Amino acid sequence: MSAPALMLLAWAIEAAFGWPNWLYTRIAHPVVWLGGLISWFDRQLNQTEWSHAIRYGAGMITSLVTIGVFTGAIWLLAYALPSSLWGLALEALIASSLIASRSLYAHVASVARPLCNDDLAGARQALSQIVGRDPNQLDKAGIARAGLESLAENASDGIVAPIFWGAIFGLPGLAAYKAINTLDSMIGHRNERYGTFGGFAARLDDLANWVPARLTGGLIVLASLKTGALKTMLQDAYEHRSPNAGWPEAAMAGALGIRLSGPRTYGAQTSQDPWLNADARDPEGEDMQRGLTLYQRAMLLGALILLGLAIGLAR
Predict the structure, then answer these.
(1) Given this model, what pLDDT does residue 190 score?
(2) What pLDDT shows up at residue 268?
């Protein structure tokens, strides 16, 4: 089976079943194992008394070893599987654990439902599970913005990017990307503790997501069938503080006719980020529901493209 076909099968398994709770309670999840390894390196090598150069080098070693260990372990596991239908199914199951389309929808929907019912406390509680900013400081529009931004960005980071690299390099490519993205999530922060130690991980993640972020933005634009989405994406994507997140977020803002990003607060720090689609209105709970529908259409379009690629390679 070709790599695109394997990714399509894995995506179908993940979309249908996710990672069941009964399995999580027994063996946790590959990303949890990965996070444990990163945390161990963080405790051992992220010493604040070390010089800038040494801390950066320690972070680089952490990143490269983590990527190598995780990718190697996944590759060995797949290599050990029998060359049979069952072996293929197990390989697809392993790959499905590193894709997050079902869980992303569920998490964002858990914010949208109470927000549409004016339950701000419930919406803030659900939002706290998916964003780093303090939800207690957000009004209704702020909650909707944060939820939609998370939906757009994670459509790239959690779905399109891992499948993109998996379609090129197979299961090892998928695993390597997941290691890179998890490193960025855990140590790629711009603060005193991780600004130096996680600098290499952050730059590597930017590189790994460069193409997938633009592909995700394109899928959202195509799924929306709105020229305004394309215009907003091309005009505002570079305004975002991230070199990649602005593409799917600007496409989402243009497609829904709302503004996203803007000033935000993380703890005691306020970031004066520019608006995406600045002249549009603020989003509401109903816009989150519209965003979820758009997300589903965009991912379906991506699956159809992947199917076409798999069929083409099978000929």
Answers:
(1) 85
(2) 59
Q: Which 3 state secondary structure label does DSSP give 274?
A: coil
Q: What 8-state DSSP symbol labels residue 49?
A: T
Question: CA–CA separation, 207 vs 58, rounded Å?
Answer: 20
Q: Positive or negative CA dihedral for 277, 278, 279, 282?
A: positive
Distance CA 241, CA 236 (A): 11
- Main-chain dihedrals φ then ψ at residue 284, nearest 5 degrees: -125, 180
CA torsion sign, 156 to 161 to 162 to 163? positive
Question: Is the model's pLDDT at 267 over the cut of 70?
Answer: no
* DSSP character string of 233-259: HHHHGGGSSSTTTHHHHHHHHHHHTB-
CB 237 within 8 A of CB 221: no
8 A C-beta contact, residue 92 and residue 106: no
pLDDT for 212: 98
Burial 167-200 (b: 16+ CB within 10 A, else e): beebbbbbbbbbbbbbbbbbbbbeeeebbbbbbb
> What DSSP element (H or E) covers 1?
none
Tokens of 51: 């010089």
Q: What is the model's pLDDT at position 161? A: 98
* pLDDT confidence of residue 270: 67
Residue 6 and residue 155: Cα distance in Å, rounded? Answer: 19
Per-residue pLDDT tens digits for 102-119: 999 999 999 999 999 999
State both tokens at 277. 């689609």
Please identify which residue in the block is written with the tokens 């997938």. 212
When the pLDDT of each residue in the chain is averaged and rounded to a whole number, the result is: 93
- Identify whether the C-beta of residue 153 lies closer than 8 Å to the C-beta of residue 147: no
User: What pLDDT score does 112 carry?
Assistant: 97
- Residue 260's φ and ψ, nearest 5 degrees, are -130, 175
| The predicted structure's pLDDT at residue 91 | 94
DSSP-derived letter for residue 117 is T
